Amino acid sequence: MLVVVLITRNNFSRCGTGVIKIIRYTTKCTGWRLTFETNLKTPQNRKECVCKIRSPLIRKTIQSSLTFIFANRTKIQFCLRFTMLTTEQRALIISQLRAGRSARELVPFFSEICSKATLYRVAREFANGAEEKPKKKQKHPWRKIDPKMAATIVRRLTTAKTHHSIRSVSRDFGLSHKAVQKLLRKKGQNCYRKRKRNLIPKTQEAQRKFCSMRFRKRFRKTDLRNFLFVDECYVTVQKSFNHQNERCYGKNFEFIPDWKKFKELPKTPLSAMVFGGVSREGRTPLVVLRSGFRLNQFTYKEQCIEFVQRNLPYNLNAKTAILYQDKAPCHAAGSVQRFLKVAFPSFVHNVDMPPNSPDLNVLDYCVWSILKERLNKYGLIGNFKKLKKLLKKEWNAIPQQAIQDAIDSWQSRVRAVEKVNGGHIEKN
Predict the structure, then answer these.
(1) Where does 68-163 have alpha helices with state H?
(2) Is it true that domain 203-419 has CATH number 3.40.50.10540?
(3) Which residue ranges make up each domain of the chain?
(4) pLDDT exceeds cutoff 70 at 278
(5) Bridge partners of 22?
(6) What's the rounded Cα separation, in Å, for the pair 231 and 308?
């Protein structure tokens, strides 16, 4: 469609003539995007600019967007190629078609209003029975969210026992995805990712509550200075790989350099088993064992417990030390329990130990996470000898104040387990 627009002295008060025409035209959701070219007799003979028209006052918007092109503010006479028909112009064309005239006959008369392609498109729509401009069918028709519907949506996503997502709720109520998101923001509800935690069966919850109650009655705050928490843990050295966040960009994946589109990871990452003990006054030397080392009742007693007995922390006596471990099979073995009765008379017996309770061992809920975090700064480690050296170095570098704070919080954790009837106490 060709629309001839003459900008006269009423629009530009300066003298001069010229022609501007649109050489490229695209439509986007943000508005019309137009590229202009001028052939004015100026030092810069050919200039281009891009403007986004967001206002229905097209002529005024184009005039304001083109003023910066011409430094001498000349009078402009230009042809504007545009593809938008007003309602009155469309009604005029349809009235001529209804009178029996063909589109070919109307082209010379409407050449100043629209292009030939636009005129034929209007004729095809009229032949199909659409006298008005057909509107695009919305994927999700507009629908008002009443208070009852809003309460149901929020209840499904927050407190319902069955799992619901924003996609399923929007599908059930015939709403768009963005409408549900906007409602949640208005209600102050945010979206978070679920986290994993260990399963505690009902039978173990009762045992955890019973053992926590006995701990509360048996141990006082002054007894924490004699506690020795021991445990073992697997440490794996590898780089993390997240398929959602690891991205590379290019026109074709084949042409992207290998160093950018591949992340090289070892087939079998280096790992080790570590064993250690901590108290309020210090820590034992770290025992580092190779990956795949089988820890049973005999190796546990020889490699771990006897080593701890020979290397107790400062101001800790084996006869008065309260050794605390978990209910692992090698810990609960009869030979280990008999050895501990002689080596550590005040140790916590297996029958008094709560099951499935990493939240009550200082090494599990504090120390091992600090050690792994300090080890991650080294990246990939080439051999076991270097890994063992770095593990012992970072073990000794853990601040003693952090260990003391974790041990001081042990009694409050015991009371929390009893308060929740043996359930989970970790909220985050």
Answers:
(1) 87-98, 103-106, 116-127, 147-158
(2) no
(3) 2-81, 87-127, 147-186, 203-419
(4) yes
(5) 36
(6) 11
